[in-house]
Amino acid sequence: KYLRDLPRFASSSGAFAVTLFLLMPSAVFSDFEPRVADLCTRFRIPLLTIDAHRRFYLRACPRPLLNSPAVWRDYLGMRTALVLMHRRGDLDIALSLFPLRTRSREAMCILPPLLRTAALSITPTPGDHLLIYHNSGGEREDIYAQCQGIPTRVYGYANQSGGDETVGTVVFRKASSEGFLKDLASCRAYASRAGFESVAEAMLLGKPCQLVPQHRQYEQRMNALHAARLGAVVTDRFDYAAAYHNNQRTLLDRSWLSSAHERFRELVRELPERSELRLP
């Protein structure tokens, strides 16, 4: 897929370079985007890179065992993508669910998930519904079949009218950041793929989590491994009845999380100085 997209990628780079040159921002924040890093180096614009992928570079980061052809395939796919696409910034930040040690040669800062203020301030309550979030498709019929008789709210399957749809005991919700957070804070348990931010929010609120890593996504395998260390249940396929009755609470360190935003601001203030150190 990436190879097929290369001509379009190349044709858009020129316009992107002109735009960045005309704007000449004081700094750029970026994630998994090599064009930005290359152009920032060319125009000498301070660059801060931030994403969860960068944990992969750290020796102290726990990783899934390479114990099957499928895991090896996912591992090599992610490693290839990192080699081809990742660029160093003036400041590189890796997000993690728990503190990780770094070595001086690794030159990377570790931060907790930068969760939205609403998630940090909301109070969790005990509820009676299972909350499901999917963004990969193909699960709607399985959810319907498994969840009849279980109070269930599902995000990720908006119907054509864009509104909520109730099928038996299952409510398919329209996309809503605020609605999702309220349903998450009041749910009995949470089931989803092994993404990063939504899982971190569920664990922050102490909700029992059942996670199924996305097929061919090594990062999600790694997310699931880290979440399992903090109490999440990781399985190969969804069992929504088991997820609903799961009482295994998650324990994300709130003191670790509470330092994230202030530490991020401190690092941003350091960015111009770090950029000067990297100039030839």
Layout of secondary structure:
Blueprint: H1 2-23, E1 28-30, H2 34-43, E2 47-51, H3 69-85, E3 91-95, E4 109-111, H4 117-121, E5 130-133, H5 140-147, E6 152-155, E7 165-167, E8 170-173, H6 177-185, E9 189-192, H7 197-204, E10 209-211, H8 218-229, E11 233-234, H9 240-244, H10 254-258, H11 260-278
Parallel strand pairs: 1-2, 2-3, 3-4, 5-6, 5-9, 6-8, 9-10, 10-11
Antiparallel strand pairs: 7-8
Question: Which descriptors apply to this entry?
Answer:
4-stranded parallel sheet
Major sheet description: 7 strands, mixed
Which oligomeric state applies? Answer: single chain
How much of the sequence lies in strands comes to 5-15%
Please report the total strand number as a whole number.
11
Question: What percent of residues adopt helix (DSSP H or I)?
Answer: 40-55%
* Biggest sheet: strand arrangement: 7-8-6-5-9-10-11
Structural class: alpha/beta
Radius of gyration: 21 Å
Residue runs with pLDDT of under 50 for 5 or more positions: none
Q: What is the CA-CA span between the terminal residues?
A: 36 Å
Overall residue-averaged pLDDT value: 88
Shape: globular
Q: Number of helical segments?
A: 11
Q: H/E series, N to C?
A: HEHEHEEHEHEEEHEHEHEHHH
